[in-house]
Amino acid sequence: MVTDADLDEAELERQLARTWTSKPGFWGAIASVDHKVVARRYIVTAFVFLILGGILALAMRLQLSQPEARFVDADRYNQIFTMHGSNMMFLFAVPVMEAMAVYLVPLMVGTRNIAFPRLNAFSYWLFLAGGLLLWISFALDTAPDIGWFAYVPLSGPEYGAGKRADIWAQMITFTEVSALAIAVEIVVTVFKQRAPGMSLDRIPLLVWSMLVMAFLVIMAMPAIMFASSTLIMDRLVGTHFYNPAEGGDALLWQHLFWFFGHPEVYIIFLPAVGMVSTILPTFVQRPVFGYLPLVMALIATGVLAFGLWVHHMFVVGLPRLGESFFTASSMSIAIPAGVQIFCWLATLWSGRPVFKTPLLFVIGFIITFVIGGLTGVMVASVPFDAQVHDTYFVVAHFHYVLIGGAVFPLIAAVYYWFPKMTGRMMSERLGQWAFWLIFISFHLTFFPMHILGLQGMPRRIYTYQPDLPWAGLNLFVSLSAIILSLGFLVFFIDAIRSWSFGRPAGDNPWNAPTLEWATSSPPPPYNFRSIPVVDDRNPLWSQPDALPVSSGLRTDRRELLITGVVEALPEARESSPQDSVWPFWAAIATSVMLIWSIFSPWAVVWGSIPIAIALIGWFWPKGEAEDES
Amino acid sequence: MSPAVSGKGPVRIFEVCCVAALLAVAVAIGLLRVPRQYRTDPPVSAALDAIRLMPSGIGGAPPEVYFALNQPYENTAYDMSQGKRLYSWFSCASCHGEGEGGAGPSFLDGWWLYGPSIVSIVASIRDGRPHGMPPFRDRMTIDEIWQLSGYVKSIGAYSAKTTAPGRNDDRQNRPAENRSPAALLFNEGPSPVHPEQGPSP
């Protein structure tokens, strides 16, 4: 048995690299369970879906740029807005945030791989299959046309003709399984694999936000799994969950969907605020103001998230008490949001801001998100919501909170962690261009939608008549959308160009305080040569020269250090799984079963056989005893 | 690609090519598919009206355009669902029930008085039949008549098809169309008066 205590640095790195590096070649890449490899695939795939969804948005803006336009017909338009929403929520926003967690959490807590790495690989392949299912069905002219929340009875058997709604529901199943898998990995990684000494009050804020996000996923996703499964059963095997005539309930769908759908917003938003709380201190070079209130705000947001789903349903007719309760709970979310805003402002105020691109996007986030939050408080009130429900006011509101609240921090995060992921800096000049183009044209695009909504323009209409007073603003919005897409184009060009040709970054180009900057850029397959020991919230600032490290892990096999939940005291050494192609085959078998089940319920029976075979291969004992540790 | 995973360039290209090829095949198939039409072209409507019936009024030939369109009224779930909606909007159920019959003949027993071809059903709805079936040619467009015919044909189908109209959100009093109820409930009915023509309704 060889442990890292006995070796000098060069020999240690050589042995760790031999143990942790994936095999080269196609099957080596398929089999890789390195969290960084999987996360990078996830992030790239999610950004591809962002581009595709953005192209759909441009198609919609083209159609709406003038009255009675004939660029796309009504049926295609229905598919496009459904694809845009479903794609952005289920294939871009949630996966990209989870992918950032998969990449960053193990590095930030100082461990060598994520917990359950094979499950991690499995979740990526399943996510990819779900995305391909949706987009190939769109290419086949059979994409869902029921809106991204697929209300029954429109999506039910009576009105949802064909396989379109089934494809939507099954795409949900794909993405939810992959999201749940990642959530479990993150919870276990954060609770049991932190570096020694990283007690709960020293966890970086991004890790806290990812932890809360993971719990939200675990508690919210089962609701949508149940909803999509029962919808498919209604449509395919003749159950009556949503058929009032046979004792079902159409409103049950809305409750189930929004019991998931509202926490979904925070599943996207919480990682974004975690990114902000992590990026901001680096660019003002002081610790974040109010660590404890920020953590409390994250947890409070997570708890409140489950108490306000009904505000999406104010116009279905509710008891008066229900309306009052959910108005109050919806407005109360402004409290933790406000706490965070003030903590960030205090951090900015008391530091020396360096206005690099990540900080610009963070400030753009603060401005945009506050505006979106203000309209959020407005639509939380029932009488106002009843007026603007299903109008462009709501479209404007949720684009402000989703793009302003999540995409801006995400772009900041890409600029911030790109050097860590690729070893190269992105261009500061192009970054400034991208920020100003995106920030200004975002507001030019989406602010007029508030006015359109107040003028009564409903969402999801594929055209409107010339005598309605919407044409001018719609043309303006469409032109602004072109500038917005130019801004994103600059960002993508910068990212692709810098990937190969960027300036070499070094280990810690921003002088950031958290552990991921303690290793090389990009990190080696084993992340850290030795597991660091943490005695401060900002270890790289308090120990700028050299971190104390722990030793005793074996180097001849993949081994992790398991620590306690609260104090992160070392508890055990644990082996970490080897590369395996079986997660890939399990994902293929699961995909075949899920897609086949759209066409025949017997798929669940026969399709489970290959899944069982793949899982047997996955869990086949390796012939060596579990370590005694 | 970062240095840490060097040597994966060909893999990435292979993956991208696979995805691109899949999407290209999907787009190609998509272009072959029948688009969902909310409004039929007027020349197509006119052609659909020109069905050729046998002199007995039983059977005949659909217009060429019907095949050119890939028989949408029998093969697309959307048109069959529209037909199902028309079935209730035009009160077909007041005589035929939910397919079990009443004042009019049953569809569920799979016994077609004028033959099971879609042309006969279109003619029955458009022109009416003796003993009480009224003509609907002045109340529905010819596209709607074809949609309704496709649906009616599916009620009395002997074998299940992959396309079927959806189940209504109503009380269910018979097997759904996609389970080919006529195959379950098939009944030759009373001995026919004119054996060559089926029993009189």
Describe the structure.
- The complex is a heterodimer of chains A (629) and B (201).
- Chain A contains 20 helices and two strands.
- Chain A has two domains: 9-580, Up-down Bundle (Cytochrome C Oxidase, Chain A); 588-623, no CATH class.
- In chain A, a hairpin with a 6-residue loop joins strand 1 (559-563) and strand 2 (570-575).
- In chain A, helix 6 runs antiparallel to helix 7 (205-236), helix 14 (392-422) runs antiparallel to helix 15 (428-454) and helix 18 (582-596) runs antiparallel to helix 20.
- Chain A has 629 residues and is mostly helical.
- With 201 residues, chain B is mostly helical.
- Chain B has one domain (42-185): Cytochrome Bc1 Complex, Chain D, domain 2.
- In chain B, 43% of the residues lie in helices and 2% in strands.
- Chain B contains nine helices and two strands.
- In chain B, a hairpin with a 6-residue loop joins strand 1 and strand 2.
- The chains are: A mainly alpha (629), B mainly alpha (201).
- Chains A and B meet through helix 3 and helix 5 of A and helix 1 and helix 5 of B.
